[in-house]
From TrEMBL:
Protein name, UniProt field: PHD-type domain-containing protein
Entry keyword set: Metal-binding, Nucleus, Repeat, Zinc, Zinc-finger
Localization, UniProt: Nucleus
A Pfam family per the record: Tudor_2
Single Gene Ontology BP annotation: negative regulation of gene expression, epigenetic
Keyword set includes Ion transport: no
Species: Trichoplax adhaerens
Cited SUPFAM superfamilies: FYVE/PHD zinc finger, Tudor/PWWP/MBT
PHD-type domain boundaries: 70-125
GO CC entries: nucleus
Entry keyword annotation includes Zinc-finger: yes
Gene3D superfamilies membership: 2.30.30.140, 3.90.980.20, Zinc/RING finger domain, C3HC4 (zinc finger) (3.30.40.10)
Length: 493
């Protein structure tokens, strides 16, 4: 069977997608959605698909299911139908599959005309539901049979250090994409991640980032899957609630009485909370949550300084809480969130939500300045005449927009001179703005005694640098009549 899976995987890329094709997209939550292909990227083997809600997302080839003719196999796209590998037509979607291409393989007893046969994708598509798959009925029994075997070889997947994501984007029984924090559970034996919509053992929906459980899949148990909830304390429940609020909203800070407490009250039946916290009065619960937030103010949480004191709170880093019980540690390896790949998917909120900052504003700006300063000095991107090339100018122009908005360093006013021999240091400078290679600004001149002259002169901003003391300096070239022989002037701002 392993050879059959490898053969199917190698034949998945035969189909050539075209713009305008109607496809079913296997999404990260395990569900299937209808869309139209808008752009094909043959190099990355992916397509840009527009869905019914007018949103456009990228999907890989093996997550797309096009509509083919009945004479072609949907898996290998072959049209040859011979014994013992005939093409079987699904009674639900009218798509054909070879007996050996379908997983599990179609036996000869199902080829009789009076027996109804439904393919794997139709069973998963009809039985999967938000909050858990169907548990009773013929569709549920058919789904349980399909869950006894994975449609891919799990030993060939390439995982990151924390075993949170794999480069093939293959998860769960359905073989679809997924995000480990987006309502997925991890098997304690094979360490694979499974969608909430594909599980038949859940009593209710999962919360984002909820890892307070011990789960064993049907493949490892060779039967019914197992799901056991672990107890969660009040501190971790507050952390988990803030994590869900941040994930589901564009805001960073949330009010205790209007957002945090209502969310905790509406979802307490989905976690195993201590009984003493279930019937706590509202005033006592507000005071308890406030004490927890204030206790971890400097390591987990932060306040909105613009709002009323101790009213709005948020997470310092968008990371869900992790169980620390001995029962959990006995089944799962520890997760190191310091791994960049493990945090890559978790920190995507920074791009979609500009208010979320992973690093303090000052540290982020200084690091950007120093790293780019070293890169520019190493590359030596200087053209003839000591000027920066156009490519470097565009790069510096974009980077300095970020630096200028953050303004990490203190501004001072101080004038000094640079000799013509120091113009070679322009390789370590930063250009502020470029408009046809020259931009004139109005600047105030400073004489040797430090007195400011009130006459404005036109100067060219040619470069920018950081001194050893950490001060930002700008290099000006005077264009006015009273300039001292065109000597460059460095000014600290």
């Amino acid at each position: 069977m392993d050879g059959n899976k490898a053969e199917i995987k190698s034949n998945l890329q035969i189909h050539h997608y075209q713009i305008g094709d109607h496809v079913l997209v296997h999404w990260r939550d395990g569900m299937y959605y209808l869309g139209n292909v808008r752009k094909v990227n043959k190099r990355d083997r992916s397509c840009l698909v527009e869905f019914e809600d007018a949103s456009i997302h990228s999907a890989r080839y093996h997550h797309l299911h096009p509509e083919l003719s009945k004479e072609a196999c949907k898996t290998c796209h072959g049209e040859v139908s011979e014994v013992p590998n005939l093409i079987v037509i699904c009674d639900n979607c009218d798509q054909g599959y070879h007996q050996k291409c379908h997983i599990p393989q179609v036996s000869d007893s199902l080829l009789k005309p009076d027996i109804q046969w439904i393919c794997r994708y139709c069973i998963f598509g009809s039985a999967m539901k938000a909050g858990g798959a169907l548990k009773h009925g013929p569709k549920a029994r058919a789904l349980q049979v399909l869950k006894s075997e994975l449609p891919y070889e799990i030993s060939t997947l390439r995982w990151d250090k924390s075993h949170l994501t794999n480069s093939e984007c293959l998860y769960c029984y359905c073989g679809g994409p997924g995000l480990w924090f987006n309502r997925m559970v991890q098997c304690c034996r094979c360490s694979q991640w499974f969608h909430e919509a594909c599980l038949q053992c859940l009593d209710g929906p999962l919360l984002l980032g909820d890892r307070y459980c011990i789960f064993t899949c049907s493949v490892c148990r060779k039967g019914l899957e197992s799901y056991v909830k672990l107890p969660i304390d009040m501190e971790d429940y507050v952390h988990l609630s803030l994590y869900n609020l941040t994930r589901n909203s564009k805001h960073r800070y949330f009010d205790i009485e209007n957002s945090i407490i209502p969310f905790m009250d509406n979802n307490k039946q989905y976690v195993k909370l201590d009984k003493k916290y279930l019937d706590v009065p509202l005033t006592s619960l507000v005071r308890l949550v406030y004490e927890i937030l204030k206790k971890h103010l400097h390591d987990k949480y932060c306040m909105d300084k613009s709002a009323k004191r101790y009213k709005s709170w948020g997470l310092r880093m968008l990371i869900p809480p992790l169980p620390t019980s001995k029962e959990y540690e006995a089944h799962y390896p520890p997760i190191k969130f310091t791994d960049h790949k493990a945090l890559k998917a978790t920190m995507k909120t920074r791009k979609s939500n500009p208010k979320m900052r992973i690093m303090p504003k000052r540290l982020c700006s200084e690091r950007t300045l120093l790293e780019n300063n070293e890169d520019l000095a190493d590359k030596g991107n200087l053209s003839q005449g000591g000027q920066l090339s156009k490519k470097v100018k565009r790069q510096l122009n974009h980077e300095n927009k970020i630096v200028d908005n953050n303004r990490p360093l203190k501004r001072k006013r101080k004038g000094c001179r640079l000799s013509s021999s120091n113009t070679s240091d322009m390789a370590t400078f930063y250009q502020k703005r470029v408009n046809n290679s020259v931009e004139y600004i109005m600047a105030k001149e400073v004489n040797k005694k430090g007195r400011r002259l009130h006459s404005y002169k036109k100067c060219t901003v040619s470069a920018r640098r950081i001194t050893c003391d950490g001060e930002v300096q700008y290099l000006f070239h005077c264009v006015g009549e009273h300039c001292d022989k065109g000597l460059p002037i460095v000014r600290e701002i």
